Structures are given as C-alpha cells and as structure tokens.
Amino acid sequence: MFATLGLFKGLSCPERLNCTRANCIYSHSPNLPLPKPLVAPVLPSTSAVALGKTKESTLTVPAKRPAVASPPKQTTNSAEPPRKLQKTGTTKKPIPVSTSSLNESGVPILRVNAARSQVAIPVRQTMLTSLYQHFIVLYEHLLPTNPSLASEHSIKQEQEVYDKSTKLTYRNAVIQCIAALKRREIPTSINHISVGTETDVADRINSQKTLAALHLSTDLLQALIHPVADLEKCGYFVAIPPGPGGEEPSMAGKIARCERCTQYFLVKRSEEAEECTYHWGKPYSARINAEKVRVYTCCSRPVAEGGGCSHGPHVFYESKVEELHSRHAFSFLSPSRSAEDSRLDVVALDCEMIYSTGGLRVARVSVVDGSGREVFDELVRMDDGVEVIDYNTRFSGITPENYATAHLTLSAVRERLDSLIDLDTILIGHALDNDLKTLRIIHHRCIDTALLFPHRAGLPYRRSLKDLVREKLGKMIQTAGASGHSSVEDASGTLDLVRWYILNKQKSAIQSGVSGVSI
C-alpha cells in the first residue's frame, strides 16, 4: 500500500471507535469533535399535507448546487431574427478556376483546388496534356511568333469543357473537343478563324454569319452618307472642271517628277524608262537603341540614310483635278431612268492602278452588291497613245501576262458601270476618292470606311484597309505579298466593315433587320 499524505488528519473519523480501516486517513484523536451529519428535509407528501402532519427525515443526502437560470427565450415579434438565422455576409464561395504553369517539356500543369474539382485532378491533367499536344499541331505556323499560344488556349479549352460537363461526361467531352481540333483548318495568321477555343471559333463563325445575313440597302445606309462638304475637305472632287477634257492623254517625252525618288526625269514607256532606286514602303517611327528613328516599312532602314532598297523605272503621279481631267475627262454617273430601273442601290467598289505615260491609271475594277455578290470585275486597257511604265505588281496584282488579256478601255468600262449604277447609287469603298479619281467619276453619295474609322491622328492620316479588316472582322486580306492585292477581296472587305459598323454602332436602327431581310 502507498503511504498516506495526512491531508485528512485534522478531521475526526466519522466512525470513531467502529472504524475497521487498517490505515484510516482520518484522525482518531478524542479531542476532535465528531462531524455533523448532513440532514436534508423531506417534503411532506400530499396525504400528509391533507392531514396537517409533517415529518422530518433523518436521511443524509449531498447538497445540490443551485441551478443557473436560463436566459429568457426571444419572442417571435422581435425586430431582430435569431442569431443563427442572421446573414453574416454576402460573400459567395469562390468558383475554382484553372491556372497553369509549364513543366520542362512545355506542357501546362493544372493548378486547381482538388477539393473543389468534381473530376480527379490526374484525369484533368491527362486531358489537358492531350489538348495541348493537339493545339501544338494546329498552331505549327504560329508558334514561332506566338510560343505561348498553345498552352494558353489548351488551359482555357480544358476549363471550358469542365464547366459544361459533369463528372461522368467530362472525359467524352474532351475527346469530342480533340476531334473538332483535328478537323480545323491549319491557321496561317493569329486572326485566322481556326485560332482559339471551341467557343471562340463558334463566336467568330456566328459573327460572320450575322454579317453575311445583313443586306445593305439605301434606307439602312442613308445616315452614313458623307455630306458633300466633308467629302471635299477629304480630297474628293465634287465638281467637273471646265473644258472637254482628255486633250493630252500622255506625258511621253515631257519632264515629270518621279514619285519614288523625287528626281525629275523624261517620261518614257517601260522598255525605254530609266531606272531609279527607291523604297516601296512607307516611313514610320521606331525606337532603335532608345532613340526615336524614322525607318521604312519595306527594309527597316533609317530614312536618314537615303538611297533605296528596290529598283524600277521612274514613275509620276498627278493629283490636281485639271491635270487628271486633261488625261481623261471627268463625268457624273448617268441619272436614274425610272422606278423600274434595275440598276443597283448599293455597291462596294475597288480599283487597282498601274503607272503609265498618262500617270497613275486604273487597270482593274471590281464591284460587289449590297449582299456581297460580285457583279463586275474587269481589267482595263490603257487609252490610245498611253503606254505602261510599271505594272506596280506588288500592290496592283497586275502582271504583263494578265494585262495582255484586257480588252476594255476606260470609256468602255464606264459604259458598263453606267448599266449597273447611277447617280442615286450609294458607293462604298476605302479611300474611295482615289478610286473615283482614277475612274474619272464625280459622285456625291459615298461611304468611305477610311472616314468611318478615322485615324487617331486625324486627317490626312488614314488607317489601312488591311488593319481595319484584321481588327474589326478578325480576317486577313492582302496576304499575297509581292503578288499584289485583289480588288474583289478589298471591295468585299469594305462592305463587311460597313456591316460591322452598323451592327456595332447602330444596333437600335436595325433590330428588325439582322435576320437577313433587307431593311
């Protein structure tokens, strides 16, 4: 047995002489008084109360601790709801969104809270890797200039599939997405329709369908026609100069200033023309070694160096209305004949030009109607006495071989155009003043996309058609490089830009006409 600590030696043993414990923890000293027993009264029974008799019980029971009063219950008519029913805040649980990092092989690694994912993370990582590998194949031409494109679109695509799927359908949804990636056309530019996730591609296709469904009519475009005063400020010719015109179609044998090298030269046909060195690109501002320098777009050489990067004949360009009128006469389009006239209300027009002994002359004319349907596309032969100096193939797309097939002169082309359009027709184009000048047409009902989408620096600066189509329509045009432009493609691009402008800038005006019905 363990030795006692004597903690109760000051207390008398309750059993005193009758204690049988071998080692009692209490004291057996006779000098200590006996402890008083705890006596608890016993409540009288109902029968005893009825008889008027009460008894005391001598039973000893432990004393009870007094009960703590419970707080009063809140009444139902209180202005404040119970605490457990009160809203402690409006913050919602965050939705898990996938993020990624790249491993050594470039495959994106999924970073998402496993507790919030309905699909096991290893399964999602496997599907993400498979998507990434197929985006790598799809973007083979884009990755050299956009190395992170495949990883960015694969992580975005996986998240799109996950958001639209359940735990049971996720794997099959990814497999179907991969099959769709295999069917896509290989993109050649960042703005190609095949670039992006399935949602991006679907949105782009729907946008193009909406554009194609919108037929441009006179009523719809009336508000976009530029006032004649504005056209004149932007360089349009709004009146026919005096004189019959066409009295001096060629400048052969006379002195002119070269548009390319700015030197004066004797105008000769291409076989006899003297060669000049020039830059075919335009100068722009760039930073080289932290300094702002003007360089050429064609070769990136500083403008201050002079010289040129290309060789070709001297050519000249005339801009005064009197000079152009003397080469070939200006005129208005023919007036409308009757209400039953079949001529078109709206067309988009574009021209390609070449250099000649009569200056910059039209060599191809293309026209599409308000629905985007090609209605006219012809090469133009130079007038009698006018010889070609330079076919300007890099921009015009005209070569000696296809120019040899041209059989219509400008006068014949004008007659053909008069059968399609008239004074009331709305002409759409980009920098349309240049096309009208080379066609020798004076027209007042014009919509110019260079004015609808002005350059941020204001006139005389203009945004290029190629940049506008890429930015607004997500398409690439004029991609043939040195092979030149297509006037049909450019005319269709300007028509779609006007459609885009209406759908995005004037939605309230065409709410009932987007379905494809002419307004």
Can you describe this structure?
It is a single chain. The longest helix has 19 residues, at 487-505. Mean pLDDT is 84; it is low at 45-59 and 508-519. The chain has helices at 46-51, 121-138, 149-164, 170-183, 198-213, 218-221, 228-233, 321-327, 393-396, 400-403, 410-418, 432-439, 449-452, 465-473, 487-505; strands at residues 99-102, 108-111, 255-257, 264-266, 275-278, 283-288, 291-296, 310-313, 331-332, 346-356, 359-369, 374-381, 388-390, 408-409, 426-429, 441-442, 446-448. It starts with 45 loop residues before the first helix and ends in a 14-residue tail after the last helix. A hairpin with a 2-residue loop joins β10 and β11. By secondary structure, it is α/β, with parallel strands linked by helices. The chain contains 15 helices and 17 strands. The strands form six sheets. Strands 10, 11, 12, 13, 14, 15 and 17 form a seven-stranded mixed β-sheet that branches. Strands 1-2 form a two-stranded antiparallel ribbon. It has a two-stranded antiparallel ribbon with strand order 3-4. Among the domains are: 1-40, no CATH class; 107-212, no CATH class; 218-242 and 330-509, Nucleotidyltransferase, domain 5.
